[in-house]
Amino acid sequence: MDINFIENIDTGVNNWNAIQNWVQSSIENEGKKTGVLSFVFMTDEELLTYNRKYLNHDYYTDVITFDDSDLLTINGDILISLEMIKNNHKELKISYKSEFLRVIIHGIMHLCGYKDKEDLDIIEMRKKEEFYLNRVAFEL
Fold first, then answer.
1. At 31, which CATH number?
2. What is the mean pLDDT of residues 113-127?
3. What is the value of pTM for the model shown?
4. Is residue 120, in this structure, part of any structural domain at all?
5. Distance from C-alpha of 138 to C-alpha of 118, rounded to nearest angstrom
6. CA angle at residue 7 from 36 to 90, to 5 degrees?
């Protein structure tokens, strides 16, 4: 198991060990093993560049997941816009912590095989996000 957090910009987060343990526990709860994961925090513009280059999408997003998993081992890179997290938490009137962790677990759920393009898939993804957010017992 190897979980890396790469901060190209200041996240304001110091409790990476607790987040790592939560991520690993969530993956195990899905019946899978943690392999090599990288979380990369960046600006909106940086993430937009990846969205255009690798996904041919010309729009801003909060998270992009590059999946390199095999059957039961979760591997991948999760690119996250910190600016989008900050905007979302203000716009949605939720805590920074909730939005920060929601985006992390959203990426993990994609690596575990959950989708979010169809209405029923979105509902299932939201249920998974809420389930794992309710299991958070630490502060950022």
1. 3.40.390.30
2. 97
3. 0.95
4. yes
5. 32
6. 115
How many angstroms separate the CA atoms of 63 and 6, rounded?
A: 14
The pLDDT value given to residue 1:
76
pLDDT for 114 equals 97
Q: Measured between alpha carbons, how far is residue 81 from residues 1, 73, 89, 108 in Å?
A: 24, 25, 13, 15
The region that residue 107 occupies, defined by phi over 0 for left and psi between -120 and 50 for alpha, beta otherwise, is: alpha
Enumerate the β-bridge partners of residue 37. Answer: 3, 76
For residue range 28-80, list pLDDT tens digits in order: 999 999 999 999 999 999 999 999 999 999 999 999 999 999 989 999 999 99
Q: Is 133 helix (H, G, I), strand (E, B) or coil?
A: helix
Domain range for 33 is 2-133
Distance CA 103, CA 87 (A): 13
Question: So what's the pLDDT on residue 140?
Answer: 78
Q: What is the residue-wise DSSP string for 32-93?
A: -EEEEEEEEEE-HHHHHHHHHHHH---S--SEEEEE--BTTEEEEEEEEEHHHHHHHHHHTT
